[in-house]
Design brief:
The chain has about 70 residues and is of the alpha+beta class. It has helices at about 5-10, 15-25, 30-35, 55-60, and strands at about 15, 45, 50. It has a three-stranded antiparallel sheet with strand order 1-3-2. It starts with 6 loop residues before the first helix and ends in a 6-residue tail after the last helix.
Length: about 70
Amino acid sequence: MRASISKSTIGIRLLNLREAGQYLGISFWTVRQLGFSGQLPLVKFGRRVLVDIQDLDHLIEINKQKFE
């Protein structure tokens, strides 16, 4: 008998572009543009284009600014 693996058990590392947009609070189109311009690495499996959540976190970190 196989044990079932749920998303909540293992977490999610790859998000589609729409989910990535929700994660960052920006539009699908902005995520798409970031990816196609090379500012955000994309992962391609067949026809699926995905984004690594670690790359999203890195994008957040490098774009942080202090406002004074």
